[in-house]
Specification:
Length: 417
């Protein structure tokens, strides 16, 4: 029976972990086997990434871009074709009009889809994405209750409805992104204070309900991978992503490796102090980053000023677009504070690229300019708004599982074991 990409994601993968020998005693041959397995995984990843970034692209060009031998590239492309991940383009291309035609290969983005789930404080976003990270369908499910069992059950039902609406596409898996403390390896939301969740086994629950492999990560790290694969950070050697919503957190990646730390706790910046901050925090201090910059605080201040009467930050953005000077001030002041936080992280981490996900910065040039001004002229040109302004939460969920695919596309095939 021919292998398909569906089998590639048939079990949880942890690409960052090295392959280990199961022998109880050390053996000389175990080290080369592990090194060979890592090498094959890396080579497969760079070939598929090259097709994503440059397709339609000739195999000879992939070999030149990656430094792999033409024979290796041809072998990997044959495996990807067998899995249904790539296909040959319809029209061969000639080099300078002479010699044998080069038949380019490209992603086969018509066969498979992935499910994406983003769990926010007021609602859950469910979506379907293709292999290029493009959102094909999505729904927002407002939380009637924040009980994790009910929220995850509705997410599974929402995904099932979206899958049913695309009967010709095969699901590869489901990615889940959320704020708070998310342990990728166990697939658990360890703690989400704003939802009141602790030790929620998301992978286990959604896997049982959907019958699909489920991968879980924090939304800032998920979006680093989304930007790295499909967005602003493609080609950057190091990337900092700053997520500012009801939850405020960050993620940092160098050479495609996201820093997780023990139990995936890296990126927790909610309690960094904001100079001049006035908001009391549940931790007992005043002026912590999350409580100062959260969308809850923005909307409360906007209500107090008579700008809006609800809790949707996009209504503040809408009021600013309509010419409300107070809304403009609230958004640009918030962007300035975000810029100061970004500058602090820039000084510590010195990334090549900074990507910010925040409603004002995504939709208003004056907010992006205010953020860059606070960062400073020397690094302002390295700071960008997310490239997924209209679909950022859907992309966050889908990017969790797409990162698994692009990082280790042959993990389930016998030749890679």
């Amino acid at each position: 029976m021919p292998r398909t990409a569906a089998s590639t994601l048939a079990s949880p993968m942890h690409p960052a972990s090295p392959t280990r020998s199961v022998s109880p005693t050390p053996s000389v041959s175990s080290v080369p086997r592990a090194a060979d397995s890592d090498r094959r995984r890396t080579s497969a990843s760079v070939v598929l990434r090259s097709v994503l970034e440059h397709g339609p692209v000739a195999r000879s060009t992939i070999a030149r871009l990656t430094g792999l031998s033409p024979a290796s590239v041809t072998d990997y492309c044959a495996r990807f074709t067998e899995l249904g991940l790539i296909r040959e383009a319809a029209v061969p291309r000639r080099s300078n009009g002479v010699g044998r035609p080069h038949v380019p290969v490209d992603l086969d983005d018509s066969r498979f889809v992935v499910g994406g789930v983003h769990i926010a404080v007021p609602y859950t976003t469910v979506a379907l994405l293709d292999l290029r990270g493009r959102v094909l369908a999505r729904r927002e499910l407002k939380h009637e209750h924040v009980d994790p069992g009910r929220v995850l059950a509705r997410a599974a039902d929402g995904l099932a409805a979206l899958f049913a609406g695309m009967p010709g596409a095969r699901p590869l898996g489901v990615g889940v992104a959320a704020g708070g403390w998310v342990d990728r390896d166990s697939g658990t939301i360890v703690e989400h204070p704003l939802l009141g969740w602790r030790d929620v086994p998301v992978r286990e629950v959604l896997g049982a309900r959907t019958g699909l492999p489920v991968h879980v990560d924090g939304h800032a790290r998920a979006l680093v991978n989304g930007e790295r694969l499909f967005g602003r950070a493609r080609g950057s050697a190091s990337v900092l992503h700053l997520f500012v919503g009801n939850v405020v957190d960050a993620a940092f990646a160098t050479h495609d490796a996201v820093h997780y730390g023990p139990r995936s706790q890296a990126g927790a910046i909610a309690h960094l102090p904001v100079p001049g901050g006035t908001e009391p925090c549940a931790c007992g201090r005043t002026g912590c980053l999350q409580v100062e910059l959260s969308e809850r605080t923005l909307c409360r201040r906007a209500r107090e000023a008579g700008v809006v009467d609800g809790v949707n930050p996009m209504h503040v953005v809408g009021a600013a677009a309509a010419g409300n000077a107070v809304a403009v001030r609230l958004l640009t002041e918030r962007a300035t504070m975000i810029g100061r936080a970004a500058r602090l992280l820039l000084d510590v981490l010195n990334p090549e690229t900074v990507v910010v996900t925040e409603v004002g910065v995504m939709h208003r040039e004056d907010c992006l300019n205010a953020l860059r001004g606070a960062v400073g002229a020397d690094r302002a040109g390295d700071v960008f708004a997310t490239g997924f302004a209209d679909s950022v939460l859907a992309v966050a969920g889908g990017s969790v599982v797409l990162d698994v695919l692009y990082r280790d596309p042959l993990s389930a095939s016998p030749e890679a074991s």
